[in-house]
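User: Sequence in, structure out. Go.
Assistant: Echoing your sequence, followed by the structure tokens.
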Amino acid sequence: MLTSVGFVLSRVFSLLVPRDWSRRILIDILNESNAELRTRLVNTFIDSEITKMNTTGVTAALIAGVISSSFSWYNIEDTTWPTRAAWFSGLVLSIASVASSAIHTAAFLRMKCDRDIPQRFRHALGKYKDYEGEEHDIWKPHVLIPYVLGGPTLHLKLAVLAFLIGLFYELWRAANDAMLTWHGEHLKIAFVVTLVGGFVVINYIFSIWTLVHRSIHTPSKP
């Protein structure tokens, strides 16, 4: 039972942080034998991370604005504490995403100023493993590095999730308070919005599976 629950939780968490994808890319970069190619790969990886962090930071700031504006709704005082708790949590998570994105961007920019970027990259993101036999990789990423790199994105996704949880909770609470009958508007609104939300979730999972998980499990050779 616990194994099944752990498997389900790991699969759900992998939708938020694609750990295997980042780990495989880092292993290839850290163990590239050609110095010139390794330098190009490191620079490409750093540039892509900076772009990703900038995009994540801007998006998180927009999400924080959306959540903040929800507190100016005319009936905000009528909402229950779980709704406001979820929205405040989403606001904190979005701010954390902005802050961590800025910290990561500054760290990678400093790394690009180093005279020996590949070696600095290795010591910052990897660790040396002295294995017997040449079939093993010498450099391995730190265990938590994939999660650290995905931290700003994880905060952003959790912020959106917290806001949606509060929104749907409030919709169905209003529907339940107004008698469960199709003659009331609250139940109709909650039902329609839930259908739209389900459609969005299905498309999100499909896009993540197509872009991330298929890239992880697709063989490099045709």
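User: And one key feature?
Assistant: The mean pLDDT is 79.
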